[in-house]
């Protein structure tokens, strides 16, 4: 089964309860998607999400997946690809952490880094190799606009996302000519359950708006998508500023 550009038939969501990924899946179900695999930690939320997608007409299955158990990724994800070709993989898992706490709790900071980077690298390589073997597919990797200029307020989370962003770009280069397309998505502040209670950043957006940007990026086979697009210019401008300008005031 080969995917039509921007309109895949079979999907694998890594991070099966991600609001951005699910908004994307819902859009794709209204187009052509018919089979959806939701990979995540077993939970009532994962099963509830699967039921919602079935109600929309998609054959939806769940598979246990833990970013912090990379030793199990090959077997778990291999079973999915053994069932059928996968046209689109959405790598959408991650944790924010609590910056103030994690700075003084190294094991907690390591868990944030391992989830957002190490676990993602493991899953992305396994899926990329499987799609290379099948000869087609798209891998969408959600990173963060914050990866473009890591700030004092969330440098643990953002630094891991910056590493993932660089990795995904390199993976895309490595897969050129194989039929596999890698697209990096850099959302800004997205109003979700994950960010509830946080002060919205400029150009805050919604999962639905990010999903629309993802679908358009797939149609264009874009290597990188910013959501919203204006963040690209804002981030470029911030990079030109000396770090001393953006650094909080206080003792050096």
UniProtKB/TrEMBL annotation:
SUPFAM superfamilies linked: NAD(P)-binding Rossmann-fold domains
Tree of life domain: Bacteria
Listed Pfam families: adh_short (PF00106)
Keyword terms of this UniProt record: Oxidoreductase
PANTHER family: 5-KETO-D-GLUCONATE 5-REDUCTASE (PTHR43669), DECAPRENYLPHOSPHORYL-2-KETO-BETA-D-ERYTHRO-PENTOSE REDUCTASE (PTHR43669:SF6)
Family statement: Belongs to the short-chain dehydrogenases/reductases (SDR) family.
Protein name: SDR family NAD(P)-dependent oxidoreductase
